[in-house]
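queue> pop job 88
queue> type: inverse folding (structure -> sequence)
queue> payload:
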């Protein structure tokens, strides 16, 4: 990797060569990067070596902190159940609007991200979170339910773009052998945001046994989400990113709206097998409504809901760490790791949700619907059991999301195609969320919602199995990745002489 005295960026090579030679094609590719020289210099802070600014690890950490501050705070608020309100109806209506728009925008977000670039897509996407949380501060004061619904629809547009850009970064920037670790790094940082966000209402409501949060909680979330939206402006676009071995992300050099709309259709034509993952996409946010509204909000008072949120998101950090690193075990072939990951997911689906069934048999919606219904506190006898169940729910979510992203990343390394995959994922995921939020808003029995969660998760795993068995290979050839772009192999391949044995690009 470059040091402060070495150049690894686009200005490092100025010799004149045969325009048709691989060397000259590489030089042209370096000039196409068009980044500033400082972006490609590694630095040292004491004994620590910091990768170049335009390297995949730095950009991954930056997008993780954008999500730490924006979706992380949204998750912390959602994790309280009902948007922090006593009655979840307003939050459910806002979320129906959110995920209705998200499901449409998300499906086409890959086209938008490929045309506008990662930086613009992220920066616009972050603003919606600030407005959404502001709407609940307003609702706390004036009980105007229209503002949260409008803010939810706006956030659906913004979040669709943000999550598509995030997914493209997480799956296309790392080398093949590091994708699990990159996903885990992102998921850990992102969910630490939700842990921090859950500590805010915990600290402010620690002596309260009320059913709704105070204004200060919403104001704290608003400050943090605004900072996240601003941070996205500090990122670089994918065309500027250069790995430690000199290779680049496979993209379209000259994208147009027409090329990217056609690219969306081409993705569905050339990668038909991805539809076997669509049920897993659909199920991936389905259980949030049940867990947040029908378990946490329905059974616990506000300070215990906040504590449960801290434990839920902290368990996600553990789950992402374990599964992300396990998915990159070098001594086991990738195709074998994919099958093992599927088997582990199926086992924990049966085990954790089986425990959830035992818990759900203890209460109904009618038992918890009255305003004076008794809510469990952390001092209540018997709290430890549901506390651990809720923690396992969080670990399970991280395992599911990490594996789904890794499965998609194992199908291709093409950044353009992976942006479309990420759009499919978030769009279909949001369509599922629309349905379950509406079901919950209509006051369906808790046991029915629980059964739908367990059934969808187990069923979607069975449907995905043929793809896992047939389409996940040990590696994807570079020749195959560049077919879906206007770049050549020489323009994106590693550069001779660049350092290749780093934590980022090490060949195991």
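queue> result:
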């Amino acid at each position: 990797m470059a040091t402060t005295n070495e150049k690894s960026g686009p200005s490092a090579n100025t010799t004149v060569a045969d325009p048709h030679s691989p060397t000259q094609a590489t030089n042209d590719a370096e000039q196409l990067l068009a980044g500033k020289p400082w972006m490609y210099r590694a630095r040292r802070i004491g004994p620590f070596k910091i990768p170049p600014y335009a390297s995949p690890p730095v950009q991954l950490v930056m997008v993780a902190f954008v999500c730490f501050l924006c979706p992380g705070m949204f998750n912390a608020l959602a994790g309280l159940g009902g948007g922090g309100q006593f009655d979840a109806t307003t939050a459910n209506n806002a979320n129906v609007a959110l995920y209705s728009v998200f499901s449409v925008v998300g499906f086409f977000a890959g086209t938008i991200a490929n045309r506008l670039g990662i930086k613009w897509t992220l920066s616009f996407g972050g603003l919606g979170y600030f407005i959404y949380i502001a709407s609940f501060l307003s609702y706390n004061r004036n009980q105007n339910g229209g503002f949260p619904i409008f803010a939810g629809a706006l956030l659906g547009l913004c979040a669709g773009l943000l999550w598509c850009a995030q997914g493209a970064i997480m799956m296309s920037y790392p080398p093949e052998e590091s994708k699990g670790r990159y996903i885990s790094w992102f998921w850990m940082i992102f969910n630490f945001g939700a842990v921090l966000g859950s500590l805010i209402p915990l600290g402010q409501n620690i002596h309260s046994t009320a059913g709704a949060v105070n204004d200060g909680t919403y104001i704290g979330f608003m400050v943090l989400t605004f900072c996240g939206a601003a941070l996205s402006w500090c990122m670089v676009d994918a065309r500027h990113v250069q790995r430690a071995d000199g290779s680049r992300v496979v993209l379209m050099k000259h994208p147009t709206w027409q090329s990217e709309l056609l690219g969306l259709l081409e993705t569905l034509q050339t990668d038909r097998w991805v539809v076997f993952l669509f049920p897993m996409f659909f199920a991936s946010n389905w259980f949030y409504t049940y867990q947040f509204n029908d378990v946490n909000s329905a059974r616990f008072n506000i300070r215990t809901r906040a504590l449960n949120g801290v434990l839920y998101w902290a368990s996600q950090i553990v789950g992402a760490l374990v599964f992300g690193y396990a998915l990159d075990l070098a001594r086991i072939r990738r195709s074998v790791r994919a099958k093992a990951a599927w088997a582990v997911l199926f086992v924990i689906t049966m085990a954790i949700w089986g425990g959830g069934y035992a818990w759900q048999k203890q209460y109904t919606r009618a038992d918890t619907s009255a305003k004076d219904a008794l809510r469990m506190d952390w001092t209540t006898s018997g709290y430890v059991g549901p506390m651990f169940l809720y923690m396992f729910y969080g670990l399970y979510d991280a395992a599911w999301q990490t594996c789904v992203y890794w499965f998609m990343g194992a199908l291709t390394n093409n950044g353009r195609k992976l942006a479309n995959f990420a759009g499919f994922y978030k769009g279909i995921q949001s369509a599922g969320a629309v349905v379950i939020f509406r079901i919950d808003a209509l006051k369906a029995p808790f046991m029915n919602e629980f059964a739908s969660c367990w059934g969808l998760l187990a069923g979607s795993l069975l449907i995905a199995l043929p793809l896992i068995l047939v389409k996940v290979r040990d590696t994807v050839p570079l020749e195959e990745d560049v077919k879906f772009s206007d770049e050549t192999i020489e323009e994106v391949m590693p550069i001779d002489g660049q350092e290749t044995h780093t934590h980022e690009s090490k060949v195991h």
